[in-house]
Amino acid sequence: MARYLGAVVCFAGLAVPALGAAQAGQNATLRRAQQAYDNLEYRQVLTLARAALRERLTGAERARAYELLGFTYGAMDSILKAVDAFKQLVLIDPERQLDPNRVSPKAYSAFDVALRQVLLVRQLRVDSVSFVGGQGAVPVRFTVTQPARVVARAIGTGGTVVIDSGAWNGQVNLRWPARLAGGDPVPPGTYTLVVDARLGQNTFSASQPIRVSHGRVDTVPSVTSLPGYQFLPETEIPPQSWRPVGLAFLYTGGALVGTLGLESSSLGSGSKRELGLVGGAALVTGFVMMLRKPAPRPAAANILYNRLLRDQIARRNQDIAKENVARRQQVQVTVAPVPQVTPK
Amino acid sequence: MSRAALGALLLALALRPAAGQLVTVGPQFALADYREVASGLRYRGSGFGGSLWARRDRLSVEAAVVRLSLDPADGSAATTGFTATQVDAWVAYDVAAYASVEVGVLHRSADPEFDAQSVGAVRVGARSFYEIGPGATVVFRANYLAAPKFSGGGRAAISLDLGLGLDIRLAGRLHGTATYAFNRMNRKTNPGGTGEIDAPIQASLARVGLALGL
After folding, report:
1. Which of A243, A249, A278, A284 would you mutate first to test chain B, the one with the most B CBs within 10 A?
2. A287 contacts chain B (CB < 8 A)
């Protein structure tokens, strides 16, 4: 079973160079070498690829020829020679990557060893980013294949700015604040981000053009409400009750009792039509008011809550006003990588 | 301006809501019952008058004047009626949301002068008021009538006045008002120095009217 799996992986690895045959077929000798590789005629691949390398080739064709040699030596278990071929390959095309899922483990490990034997700065990437000057940074990342002294610089309109330096190996992540030595944002323009690596006499440089532009910082609009908080009605309608007619009855009853109590016995019982008229009107009014929708009354808790909310909004707007004053003096820095043509 | 136009203008003003209304003024129709000395001397009648009410913060002022034509009631020993003019005035100060203390005056004069007692007194008392609904307020008052003076002389150590009132906002600035007042004065006289005799006075008065908010 293991042998079967190995055969499948090996076949998959051999298929990869075949896929690139059409691209690499400019040079006739190189095309024949590719055909020989597709037919598993490894000795003929070696002869033809070496012959092609003696001819006039483009960079991409030369890289393809070394790649074919690397795969072929890998297939023939000549690992050291495969490593040498791959070293030549990555020196021509440092960004060359192999897919570990599609090449044979032997070829991939030889490629990996070759990478670690050559000083390279690979996969230099700058992410597009926009930030307020002084409050953000540009993410920069790259890979150094050997432990080396590395200096990253930005060279352009505003002069040369050293981003960072150090003794690094492997994946390196930097954050460039895009500021000059004085603290001001770098002037707008096109810059080239250069990463120099030095190990003894060996040096390697990778670069990535970037464009820096300036813009105005957006001001923050003032708020009229706070998220999650809403003004509450400052009046509330109390539930209907018998209170109006009860009070009218109480007041009228008080007047009636008072009148009866104060009436002089010597003067006889007085006329009640006056009290009947006014008291009746009060009772009818009370009854009508009992049936009517009660008048809204101030809701003290809601009024207090709304006052606190208004205070909070006013305070927030004061903060926003201060922030906007500061923002009007700031600059929005936008950094974007400029696409560059990579050798095929 | 024609009367019709003036009437329409006044009606439009009356129906327009007033903001922060502090003064009302308007006419009133009154019904009255008046008794004096003994149960046989009683009068009933009606009349017209007016009222004014004003408020500023906790202080309020109220005044009413009414002119009544009082005629002997059925079974009364009186033979002729008389005309009475009554003036009431109060100044009140709110001591709570539903209560105020008040002072004022009461003055009632009779014409012809000696057909009934004319009286003047100082009022001291309190009143309670409560809004029983939107724009509807009921009032109950109790006043002590201090130092009453009578045209026929005498004194009244115990004199009280009770009142019931109702104010309803009918539309906009237009209010409907109804007030009831009952007063009893335990008047005692000493005619000819022969000793004090009771000559009580008792009156009830109902006023119904309209008032315009200003």
Report:
1. A278
2. no
